[in-house]
């Protein structure tokens, strides 16, 4: 089996990054993590990736005069690694439409809500304020609109009486790791593809 080469973009500790690295250790998993790139030199996930023997590169956005120059450097690193798929795992940078188009159908992100509900930030606060009894996470293809790409995998969790944003965030995080690994496997194996703005699934 020819495994897809995966690059992961992070900004912090990268708990979802670590989950994908673990998933890729399974012999029949259809993807391998070949590089981790952070936009911050002190991102804790870099050391975690290196400890797993994975190339880890810091490309701090503050070292560049413009967003375009920073993205060009990131793109060069992705191409140098021969990446097939890019996974955003807590990458706290808004990505330009030009960068998105380079990786259309090959870039994934995880968002802590059941999209299309509660896009953007502070999703747990939004859920509690709305009175919803169900929450969760979504892995989706990245498109030019924030959190607007078609879903690949979702997992729901209950909203419990007495929940706070912190307890709800913890419960969602507990299912994020498996959901992301499952979604990446679908894309890497060709069982989930993006076509005309929709996710198309096949056996």
Automatic annotation (TrEMBL):
A GO CC annotation given for this chain: cytosol
UniProt GO MF annotations: phosphoribosylglycinamide formyltransferase activity
Record site: Raises pKa of active site His: 147
GO biological process: 'de novo' IMP biosynthetic process
Broad EC category: transferase
Record's catalysed reaction(s): N(1)-(5-phospho-beta-D-ribosyl)glycinamide + (6R)-10-formyltetrahydrofolate = N(2)-formyl-N(1)-(5-phospho-beta-D-ribosyl)glycinamide + (6S)-5,6,7,8-tetrahydrofolate + H(+)
Residues annotated as signal peptide: none
Binding of (6R)-10-formyltetrahydrofolate, residues: 67, 92-95, 109
InterPro entries reported for this sequence: Formyl_transf_N, Formyl_transf_N_sf, GART, GART_AS
Active site: 111
Presence of keyword Methyltransferase: no
Alphabetized UniProt keyword annotations: Purine biosynthesis, Transferase
Protein's pathway: Purine metabolism; IMP biosynthesis via de novo pathway; N(2)-formyl-N(1)-(5-phospho-D-ribosyl)glycinamide from N(1)-(5-phospho-D-ribosyl)glycinamide (10-formyl THF route): step 1/1
Binding site for N(1)-(5-phospho-beta-D-ribosyl)glycinamide: 14-16
Listed EC numbers: 2.1.2.2
Keyword Repeat attributed: no
Record domain Formyl transferase N-terminal: where: 4-184
NCBIfam families referenced in this protein's UniProt entry, alphabetically: PurN
PANTHER family, A to Z: PHOSPHORIBOSYLGLYCINAMIDE FORMYLTRANSFERASE
Family as reported in the entry's similarity comment: Belongs to the GART family.
Function: Catalyzes the transfer of a formyl group from 10-formyltetrahydrofolate to 5-phospho-ribosyl-glycinamide (GAR), producing 5-phospho-ribosyl-N-formylglycinamide (FGAR) and tetrahydrofolate.
Name assigned to this protein: Phosphoribosylglycinamide formyltransferase
Naturally occurring in which organism (per UniProt): Phyllobacterium pellucidum
